[in-house]
Design brief:
By secondary structure, the chain is of the alpha/beta class. The protein is about 45% helix and about 15% strand. It is globular and about 65 Å long.
């Protein structure tokens, strides 16, 4: 059976990092990198550190307005499909690569598997929400990470036989990659475990809204008077902050974006984190690090409802009070850390078994 996996962003590489080697072992597997955010060369270190094979195809689409970017991906990925004639195309998550990969495949009558299906923020102003919805409704096999996601798909009228409640590959990836990190990496930043708060900020809903961005930066500047904040700043976020003439306090330890394993070392050693990243919400759970989210909604409400992660919005006073609550009350912090949230393991292996059963059913084994 020939399987094509298409990805184009670092979160996709990370979340598929436990599945990709298994696909290589079990099937004729072709990996395609669209280059959605960056030239492929900038992602090479991810493949190296996570011990993944290099893609057979790099489409070098690069950064554009969403319509043009998606169109270029459709055009170039369609050529790959016509050349390779796969039996299955796998897409992951909510990116423009996900959308283009699913559309190109379904239009050529190639079955599509959407990993991380059914996640919903219910905010259609977010491009990620549109990408997820469309990918879900054209996919043939929908891998739902939890019951909430599976129920979203059923509520939208997707046939139950297409929905597979297997769990999230993000937990597989974080568990696998946990073994690869070097805890001593934090020493190069002159840091000690549990003495700092890790910050990431990159979502368009925050960075493209000057008022929200200013509010978040203002809150971080105030918090930095009371504790060490470590902020690996996303290049796009850095550019927007400069463009808007916003000031980051010198008390904040602003560092360059880190390779994935260095970032995991920082996350695992942090007291807690402040992040608007969907992937970090899941990784934080694996490392038992509470995550405060400067957002009004999240696709991962299960972790919020369990009391492990927290939506804190973008109002400065609310952000500051939420952070102070954890800084000033060690008992409360430990209470949160002692909350157990179940997540599925060996999800990647379950996906492999599912694909094998599909192959047998379709005579492609």
């Amino acid at each position: 059976m020939k399987v094509v996996t298409v990805l184009g962003t670092r979160p996709e590489i990370i979340k598929l990092s436990a599945l990709l080697p298994l696909l290589d072992l079990e099937f004729e597997h072709i990996l395609v990198h669209t280059g959605q955010h960056y030239d492929y060369n900038m992602d090479e270190v991810f493949f190296e550190h996570l011990k993944l094979k290099r893609p057979e195809y790099t489409l070098n689409v690069g950064s554009h307005q969403q319509g043009k970017q998606t169109a270029l991906m459709l055009e170039r990925f369609e050529e790959v499909i016509l050349t390779e004639k796969p039996d299955l195309v796998i897409v992951q998550g909510d990116t423009n690569t996900t959308l283009a990969g699913a559309l190109a495949a379904v239009k050529l009558h190639i079955p599509v598997m959407h990993v991380e299906a059914g996640c919903r923020s219910f905010n259609r102003k977010m491009p990620e929400e549109i990408n997820r919805i469309i990918a879900d409704h054209v996919a043939d096999y929908l891998i739902a990470p939890d019951n909430k996601c599976a129920n979203h798909l059923k509520d939208e009228g997707i046939a139950a036989e297409k929905i597979m409640l297997l769990g999230s590959t993000a937990f597989d990836a974080a568990t696998r990659n946990k073994e690869l990190i070097d805890p001593s990496l934090i020493k190069k930043f002159c840091l000690e475990k549990d003495t700092f708060v890790l910050v990431t900020l990159h979502r368009a809903e925050n960075t493209d809204n000057r008022e929200s961005l200013q509010d978040i930066i203002s809150a971080l500047n105030e918090i930095a008077k009371e504790t060490t904040l470590v902020f690996p700043i996303h290049p796009r976020t850095k550019k927007i902050i400069a463009k808007n003439n916003l000031r980051i306090s010198k008390k904040i330890k602003v560092i360059e974006p880190q390779d994935y394993l260095s970032f995991l070392a920082l996350l695992s050693a942090s007291k807690f984190c402040i992040s608007d990243s969907g992937g970090i919400q899941e990784e934080a759970l694996v490392f038992n690090v509470p995550c405060l989210m400067p957002r009004e909604e999240t696709e991962w409400m299960r972790l919020v409802e369990k009391g492990k992660n927290f939506l804190i919005g973008t109002n400065p006073e609310r952000i500051i009070s939420s952070v102070r609550r954890l800084l000033g009350d060690e008992e409360e912090l430990q209470r949160i850390k002692h909350i157990t949230v179940h997540y599925e393991t060996a999800v990647s292996q379950k996906i492999i078994q599912l694909i094998k059963s599909i192959a047998v059913r379709n005579g492609n084994s």
